[in-house]
Amino acid sequence: MKNKTGVLLGRLMRNILRSPDTIITVAITPIMMMLLFVYVFGGAIDSGTNNYVNYLLPGILLMAIASGVAYTSLRLFNDIKSGLMSRFITMPIKRSSVLWAHVLTSLFSNALTLVVVFLVALLMGFRSGAPLLDWLAVVGILGLFTLALTWLSIIPGLTAKSMEGATAYSYPLIFLPFISSAFVPTETMPKVIRAFAENQPVTSIVNAVRTLLYGGTVGNEIWIALGWCCGIMFLAYIFASRAFKRKLG
């Protein structure tokens, strides 16, 4: 059996490059949210910062990732529905290559989307004096979060009965940042909502990214964020692998 992940990755990336509207479509929602909150609601929101786009950007990046991984489910579902996946597994290639190609495609395509969002944020006044090591840490956290959600997206991609079912799971992920510290400090929330917001993964990840970008003391926040990302990725990988074996034998 040969590892053909690179070949399969090239196939998926060519499809994306032939249809760049996929990346643009994914970027539109978070960019529109960023414009709406900065220019419409920003003046009424007390985030404790002078530049609201700086406060908002980490949460917007997570929303963009959550939107982007839905296409992983869709691409995988289409490969199965068309019979292409069954054809792949009859070839002399490692079966894991098929899934890893989809995972790496998600990583690359989401990276392109995040670059687009960053460029728009720069035009809106985003600035960061973070050193290179902190930027690398931000890239690492966003990469881990992308991998975690991508492996999560593999599960509905393998098990869904319809195209809508393959992508519907992403909607709660996209709106999870609204019940976190992404848009406003959790201190402003009612007790019950605040308890949930402070103990869900988005808040820890947003706080870690925000602190790294703007020179604060990260403390335990970064380890909690990494723990969430690695934990979700580990569990999702196990369930996705089992679903793959059940689906295609």
UniProtKB/TrEMBL annotation:
It is a multi-pass membrane protein. It is found in: Cell membrane; Membrane. The chain crosses the membrane at residues 21-41, 53-77, 98-123, 135-154, 166-184, 222-240. The keyword Repeat does not apply. InterPro entries: ABC2_TM (IPR013525), ABC2_TM_bact-type (IPR047817), ABC_2_transport (IPR000412), Nod_factor_ABC_transporter (IPR051784). Residues 21-247 form the ABC transmembrane type-2 domain. The keyword Transport applies. Belongs to the ABC-2 integral membrane protein family. This is Transport permease protein. It comes from Paenibacillus rhizolycopersici.
